[in-house]
Amino acid sequence: MAKIVITGGTGLVGSYLSKMLSKNNHEVVHLSRTPDSSAEYPTFEWNIGKKYIDPNALDGADYVIHLAGAGVANKRWTKQRKKVIIDSRVESIKLLKSQIEKQQVKLKSFISASAIGYYGMDTGAAELTEESKPGNDYLAHVVKLWEAEADTLEEFTSVAKVRVGVVLAKEGGALKEIAKPVKLFAGAPLGSGDQYMSWIHIYDLCAIFRQVLENKLEGTYNATAPNPVTNEALTKSLAKALKRPLILPNVPAFVMKSMLGEMAQMVLGGNYVLSDKIQSTGFTYKFTQVDAAVKDILC
Ligand SMILES: NC(=O)c1ccc[n+]([C@@H]2O[C@H](COP(=O)([O-])OP(=O)(O)OC[C@H]3O[C@@H](n4cnc5c(N)ncnc54)[C@H](OP(=O)(O)O)[C@@H]3O)[C@@H](O)[C@H]2O)c1
Questions:
Q1: Which atom of ligand 1 lies at the shortest distance from residue 74's CA?
Q2: pLDDT digits (tens, 9 = 90+) for 194-234
Q3: CA of 245 to the centre of ligand 1 (A)
Q4: Superfamily of segment(s) 3-298
């Protein structure tokens, strides 16, 4: 049993992961900007802008799992929003690091979420591994800064970074958004529909975090299912699970660009990411095919 501090533990991944870890007899505590005294897990406050962490938050911690970050798809990417997206991931690590140093916390590992946006959203069907080069767009820039800051914790403990793919989950994320128009008989692939989406079922993602933690893995791991699909294939899979026809033509790229601005690269672009490295550690996926993952979540 280990004591695990999860930042952003109230979010989509954090909630699921907290349940999985506590079910497996780990002690979970959360770090949140707005701690709720009636929350399921003991929750401590931090304020990244004010460089404040509750001094008891890291007491006896064996692991920190860093999931906190302002949603990249929640608001248009203004200059100000771009800074919030970066600071919530990078300044938060700096704050954790200073507290770990101050309290001399003996962490077994610091595990940070990262994202497959690292590779850039314009890599087409090129197969990407952890060794592939980073991209040049805004998301790649965010992830490079995020991972570089996580690596500075190596001074104190071992560091692992989990490059998360497009998370499929009941409670939120991409699937919920794509399902909305499909349910209303208005679903359609976006842009060419040929762009790859390297998806992962939330169960497998959280199982990867558990694999990394319990096996003391370090370094970088892609967390994507073994069979990425195109945007068109995912939309069709959803329509099949929801028993809805797909009758409309693809949504043209210019429409997405005018709606989302620069953020449109997240849906019009994509990447084909391989996960052989985590599988070589003995990890096996529960959901390898998108149809089964979508059916499990929606039906
Ligand atoms: N979901 C995906 O498809 C996906 C894909 C790739 C990477 N990821 C990464 O995986 C991590 C977890 O994803 P998720 O889907 O669980 O995210 P989420 O549901 O948006 O939750 C993230 C948590 O971060 C905290 N947070 C939000 N804004 C913040 C800010 N400005 N400053 C500090 N903390 C803030 C919130 O916790 P409090 O309100 O309690 O503070 C929130 O619950 C994120 O870093 C995300 O970028 C996710």
A1: 20
A2: 999 999 999 999 999 999 999 999 999 999 999 999 999 99
A3: 33
A4: NAD(P)-binding Rossmann-like Domain (3.40.50.720)
